[in-house]
Amino acid sequence: MKHFIGVELGVTNIVAGIVDKYGRMIRKDSAPTLKDRPYEEIIRDMAELIKRVLHDENVDIRSVRYIGVGCPGIPDIAAGTIVRNYTLNFINTPIREELQKYYDLPVFVENSANCAALAESVAGAAEDIEFSVTIKVGNGIGSGVIINNKIYSGFNFAGAEIGHMVIAMGGEPCTCGRKGCWEAYASATALINHARTVVKNNPDSLIYQMVEGDLSKITVTAIFEAAREGDNTCMDITHEYLKYLGEGIVNIANILMPEVIIISGEISKQGEYLLKPLREILCERIYSKDIRQPELKTAELGSAAIVIGAAMLGLYRETGTIG
Amino acid sequence: MKHFIGVELGVTNIVAGIVDKYGRMIRKDSAPTLKDRPYEEIIRDMAELIKRVLHDENVDIRSVRYIGVGCPGIPDIAAGTIVRNYTLNFINTPIREELQKYYDLPVFVENSANCAALAESVAGAAEDIEFSVTIKVGNGIGSGVIINNKIYSGFNFAGAEIGHMVIAMGGEPCTCGRKGCWEAYASATALINHARTVVKNNPDSLIYQMVEGDLSKITVTAIFEAAREGDNTCMDITHEYLKYLGEGIVNIANILMPEVIIISGEISKQGEYLLKPLREILCERIYSKDIRQPELKTAELGSAAIVIGAAMLGLYRETGTIG
Predict the structure, then answer these.
(1) Residue B6, class by beta-carbon neighbours within 10 Å (0-12 exposed, 13-18 middle, 19+ buried)?
(2) Residue A106 sits in which domain range?
(3) What interface predicted TM-score (ipTM) does this complex get?
(4) Is this model's pTM higher than 0.90 or not?
(5) Mean pLDDT of the region A3-14
(6) Does residue A140 sit in the same domain as residue A94?
(7) Same domain for B115 and B48?
(8) In chain B, how many domains are there?
(9) Are residues A164 and B254, on separate chains, in Cβ contact within 8 Å?
């Protein structure tokens, strides 16, 4: 039996996993990235981590067919490098070449949001779907776009930056330098920051009690939990937040019109409580009514998606198509 | 030698043209649509118009290989129908079936914005380009998206409605029912309406003199001409307008990241005077800097684009790819 290794090279942690050909995770493990080191050291630790996870599962390296690495930034697919990533300080960083110093195996490199979308297409919420968009609500808003069973990220692999779509011209400043980007309103960070400001002035609210007055403990999950319990403060916060999240989703539907739109990140745990109001917004505001509409779903693979997608890169690249 | 017939079924006029296999227009002619008639009458006149243009060019119908029809609305490519178009009041209207009552030839149906994008890809500003977006600045903002040398309009053929991307939440009301859509700010209609309001209060402006105080005579071309002549009123109007047009273009670049973005419609006559400031906005605000950027161009085929694209539909559908 053949195995596939997937690696998520994150800003905080490296995660390596053994995945089977159906995209099922067999075992995974992680190590700190310690991102301010030379890339050679980071990849040395990545190689060590792969060795450890193989050892712990008692898998022989000879049964591994491909290694895939999901990494933030713009990849050069052909060269196996990351062309640009400011957070990790990568410029034309030769991920494949460096990792092949440790493993004599084909190594594939891809943007991590694209890996997550690939994983959901192979073994998650977009299985057997040719057109999907996976929206990751996290520190920012990332996305992976699948068109005709292929990862789509533009002619230079730097597209699908849907978080940096301005929805409110002249509005909130965004990390990218523009004002009013979707991610400045609809990321988890934006939600939490807004909640902290509001909750500070509402010490009688349920969420204030839940976090014992420590606003740094406010999380996406806590906000939605309090709203579900009927906390008016959090109901207002989530209502306002969903308007922004929904506005961007309607834009994406009007532009890309995927068959399935997947929401991932911590917020996806809210399931129907999140999806129902978003579906209402989509249905009411989408441009083309009276025909079949995109389906909204939450991600199925959770935090394993990037590793699974990275592991599947080799099979995907063999044929240039998913499934 | 083989000929191809393209038809633009517009809200005001029907245009039929004879096109060669390189996408060059040989001859065209038009007739009024008189849109409030039964579709059978409209298509009867379309058939008549085709007959006339063939006769006038002395082309035998036996030398025609395909007929293509570009029409506003959502097409069903397989069925050769228009599923929905509110302006023409088409619901599952069988364009192919009806036209084949007059011509025993393969008939193809496609959305007109997609035809225009196809034409620019075959014989215009996006020749030999795999990824392009053609933006039509007119009454609204329409678009045709080419991905991997294929027309892309979503899983249900109703996507690529980039004019209905909200850029200013809660802003100007749009015909689609949302508020703040790009087309409510950046269409030719939006520009002209804004100019009329401003010019009314500026009787000393050059444009006021150009139209002899008749605000209904203000056109996109007149506004830009006055701005080029140094009219402060129109310079302010175009400056403001280009901010809105540019904001949407940056969004499209961040999301779709096409190699070429084409601007069509009357405004495209402004050439570099239009493109230069838009390039500056794009370059300054695009998310991924320091790499190759999308190129901004004006359309090359002008008002012939839809007819040419419609004529090319058959060759495109033969292989499922452009070129």
Answers:
(1) buried
(2) 3-121+303-319
(3) 0.95
(4) yes
(5) 96
(6) no
(7) yes
(8) 2
(9) yes
